[in-house]
Amino acid sequence: WLQDTFLGYGNSAQATYTSEDMVDRFLPHLNFKDTFLNKRHLTACFPKYEIECKTPDSEATPPFNVTLSSPDSEEKHLAVESYRIPNRGPYPYNQPKMNT
Hints:
There is one protein chain. By secondary structure, the chain is of the alpha+beta class. The chain has helices at about 1-5, 20-25, 40-45; strands at about 30-35, 50-55, 65-70, 75-80. The protein is extended and about 50 Å long.
C-alpha cells in the first residue's frame, strides 16, 4: 500500500494511522531508544498527549519505552518508562552510540 500511495495510484486516506487498515496493524508499544534527549524533550514532542511516567522523575533518563493509547480511544495518553541498556562489554567500542 505504501508504494501505491507514494506513487499516487493508491488511496491516500490509507496512509493515516486512524484508517481501518492501519488500526489492525497498530503497535501500542514502541522503543524510542535515543530519540529523546530527556523527559522534557519527550513531553515537548507530544504536546496534546497526557503523559504518565512510570519511572520516578529523578530516574527518568533516556532511553524510553512508550506505550500509546489506541487510535480508537477519545483520550490521548502515553505511558513512558525509562530503562537501562544492558552492558555490552568492557571496551568503549562495545557501547552503543547515543544521540547526545
